[in-house]
Amino acid sequence: MRKAHPLHLRLLWLLRDEGPLSRAELADRLQIPRPRLLAELERLVALGYVAEAGLAKSRGGRRSTLVELDPRLRFAAVDMGASSIDVEVVNGRLEPVAAYAEQADIRSGPKATLHRVNELLHKARADGAYERLDAIGVGVPGPVSFRDGVPVSPPIMPGWDRFPVRELLTREHGCPAVVDNDVNIMAIGERHGGVAHSVDDFLFVKIGTGIGCGIFLGGEVYRGSDGCAGDIGHIQAEPHGPVCSCGNVGCLEALFSGAALAKDATAAARSGTSPALAERLAARGRVTALDVAEGAGEGDVTCIQLIREGGRRLGGVLAGLVSFANPSMIVIGGGLAQLGHILLAEIRSVVYRRSLPLATGNLPVVLSELGPRAGVAGAAVLASDVAFLEAS
């Protein structure tokens, strides 16, 4: 059952997601008496969250005054990947007013990476994107204690364990901050403004450097008791498979992820079984998952087989999750979503074949609509949520 949220939170969410509304519309949508609404609006205006937005269109009588989120509200959204940083500053409607993206190595450690994040945010301020930030949302590519705002033993983030990310950003920018793992923020972004818009129960599967799953149940992100729910990359997919970075054997991530696919593609190129990959290896000295996608598009049989094999393994894990959680949608995102409909068809085939008919009778398996923007979009939603909570 969905939680009962406080009035001020529902009011601010409504203005964020719908735009300017009249007092009458707000009272009607929130199903509260007009005097109570007016008292709440007065309080939020005094706090700097809400402002008047001119007159509504005439309906033949007296024109009502519209209410909107204060135009000065600004949230920062930061999506840190294994090899990139994406930063956006957005207004109260979560519309970008400044955006920066660059390559970065998360293994360079928290001090260097967060220093660069701070530099980008200060650049946005110098460029006129904001006078002050009201909140910051951050995603990192590893397990996070959502309660404490710190990464916890992240496998691909050496030096980040228990680093006070939230505390550092709050101190630097003088506003609340929230930290989550990258897959959760992508799922949040996709639900707010993507293909899963308003879907209450769905799985968002990110296939990139690693594999993870964002879980929405009853309209809320399910993080688990310690914040590490959805770490499906370390479910065993092959009992006698390769050793994974986590130390176990046959993990899904060791068999099908960006690194695993690049490794298999390199072997196929060197053995000569894939002319398309051999050509790319000779030209550039290495091959990547993108090369596999391009090769498959050209009809290269080995590239198609590599994608299908990956889809089969991922589909096997997802079939178990579908039988367990009974979601109403599965969304595939992350860098390897570029493998496209060959991958999607294989995942669908395995999930539909191996899960209960009742669970798959009306189960779309689709590609992310937001693509690479899903992470910053979700981080912006989280930032607005933590700012709005401060208005209580």
TrEMBL record:
Keyword Transmembrane: no
Example GO molecular function: kinase activity
Signal peptide location: none
Keywords, ordered alphabetically: Kinase, Transferase
InterPro entries: ArsR-like_HTH, ATPase_NBD, ROK, ROK_cs, WH-like_DNA-bd_sf, WH_DNA-bd_sf
Pfam families recorded: HTH_24, ROK
Family the entry assigns: Belongs to the ROK (NagC/XylR) family.
Identification of the protein by name: ROK family protein (Putative glucokinase)
Lineage: Bacteria, Bacillati, Actinomycetota, Actinomycetes, Micromonosporales
